[in-house]
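cron nightly-structures :: item 1 of 1
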Amino acid sequence: MLGTGGTIAGVSTAHPAQAGYRAGVLDIAALVAAAPGIEQLASLQAEQIASIDSKDMGTAVWVQLASRIRDGLQQDDVAGCVVTHGSDTLEETAYFLHCVLPAGKPVVLTAAMRPATALSADGPRNLYDAVQVAASPQARGLGVVCVLHGRIHSACDVSKAQPTAVDAFSSGERGPLGFVGAQGVQITRQLPSQPPGQLPQTPWQPPRGSWPRVELVHSHAGADGAVVRALMQASQSGDPSQKLAGLVVLGTGSGTVHEQLQTALDEAETAGIRVFYASRVGALSGGDFDGLNAVKIRIRLMLELAAETGVGPR
């Protein structure tokens, strides 16, 4: 069990107890202690990786998580891994791990919408359910999953769809992979032998140097391409951290883009910057990134560019 902070580890002194809280205060051991009966599910080993609000998540913690999970799952007596996380970027961390880890033993991310000190805090139940899934043979081979509110979501499909509700996560039209509760773990949707989205399985190596910079750009009424040109100008400053490698465009509707923005994007492609299109409405079907939303396309593009340049996982 690896802790990274988030609302699930949040503490508030305000009234009501979910207002004005600070994320990432409690460690993973405290979260385990607050979930009655959880230690009867499995023999648990807890370790704190980070204590942050997940809005501040980044590649450094992702790499640390991936390395620690990989090492842990290689142990014969380890059945699976649970990661506690904030809800805001849960889908991004889950998808990154899904891409770089083999689809063998279960890797389960969970979160909470209410801090640990709130009345009817949802964290303890989510954590209990996550351990149930991680310990279940039925969850093997699914890739990374997220367990929240009794549902088991694929890292490819899950997204935070509501900012405040306890039942905040959705897998869209595909629906969850299954459910967990009093009846145990039930997988109701099967995946291929290699779940979609995973990179070809080769030994994973931590990145060397900076990750390729990939930014998100929105198309909207009046989008004139100024943001794209500003990013391109910064890319030419000589600062390696500003060098732009890719753009993911959140288009309107089915991925359409304002004509003035498209002109700037064409200029970016001519300059050697990779451009991919998504929709601000939701995930698009078909193409290289079938069913992925924009933030996951960004992660996938970062990984592919890193592999091409030898900077990151390959």
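cron nightly-structures :: done
The mean pLDDT is 91.
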